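Onboarding guide, step 5: your first structure request.
Type a short instruction followed by the sequence, for example:

Predict the 3D structure of this protein.
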Amino acid sequence: MTTRRTYHHGDLRHAVLTAALDVIAAEGPDALSLRDLARRAGVSHAAPAHHFKDRTGLLTAIAAEGYGLLADALADAPDLRERGIAYIRFAIDHPAHFQIMFQPGLHRADDPDLLAAKERASAELRAGVTALGPDPRTAGIAAWSLAHGFATLLLTHNLDDPIGDRTPEEVFRSLTALAFPK
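The system replies with structure tokens like these:
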């Protein structure tokens, strides 16, 4: 006679999110399946759907969590240059979040948690550009483009040779001095 193990998982939501982030970082978002994540968490294939409904719900939760983490990282930066550094550090420390956050086709754009987290991160980004002259909106786009582009090139290893033995922070500070001289 076999005994069936009853379902119980201390924090299934967290376990599934963690496993999903690992899969995305290693193989990209296309490799993600709720069935595989359930297997990794040791639960029935239907269990993750209780928390996320479907794959899009899971990716939406990852994006919302990412925007919250980004907002936290930016909040501690004292000026625009250091906000750029915080943005890049966030991308390095959370590559799977970063990858999902900026692919709106992967998540539900109208999700309330996602919208609140995006607004919080946007407010932190905007707070760093208010002193950039008569057109802070355009300056903000330039600053964001510089930080986001640099982070993306860094994560895809396109800057390995140009950076050489310098740190990403050191190189980015030099770039911002060129783009935003005081």
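Each response can be followed by summary notes, for example: The two ends are 77 Å apart (CA to CA).
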